[in-house]
Amino acid sequence: MHPSKPLNLFFILTVMIRRPRNPCYFNTGVMVIDLWKWREGKYTEKLENWMRIQKRYRIYELGSLPPFLLVFAGDVEGMEHRWNQHGLGGDNLEGLCRALHPGPVSLLHWSGKGKPWLRIDSKRPCPLDSLWAPYDLFRHPSLFSNS
C-alpha cells in the first residue's frame, strides 16, 4: 500500500516532536560544519536515512534541502551577514534586485531564483550581478587553461 499524506506527515511530525528546540528554516547553500560534531552525531547516516525514506515514499519536494531541515531543524546557528551575504538572487515572488547588507562582506550568495548568469544572459542584470561576471567561466575561457 502506498503511503497517504497523513503517513507522510507522521514521519515529519515524529522527528519534530523529539526536538529540544523549535524547528527553523535555513538555507543549505552555505554551511559551516564542525566535522567532529558531524561524525559524533552520525549526521551522514541520518541524512541517508531520510533519503531512503524519500526514495520509497516521496514525502517531500525541493531536492536536497528537506532532509537537512528534518535532521537539523532547530539545531543550527545563523551566520553574520558578513560571512554569508545571502539573498542576492532577489525576491522569489517579484524578482526584485537586492542590495548588500551594510558592513564588510566575505561571501556573496545568490540564493533564490535570480542567478546572475541567467540575468546577465537575458540582458536584465541586477547591479550586484557585475560582481559575479568576472568569474563566469564561459566568458573567460582562459580560466580553464593550465598556463
From TrEMBL:
Pathway: Glycan metabolism; pectin biosynthesis. It is found in: Membrane. SUPFAM superfamilies: Nucleotide-diphospho-sugar transferases (SSF53448). GO terms for cellular component: Golgi apparatus; membrane. It is a single-pass type II membrane protein. Gene3D superfamilies: Spore Coat Polysaccharide Biosynthesis Protein SpsA, Chain A. One of its GO terms (molecular function) is glycosyltransferase activity. It comes from the Eukaryota. It is an enzyme of class 2 (transferase). Belongs to the glycosyltransferase 8 family. This is Hexosyltransferase.
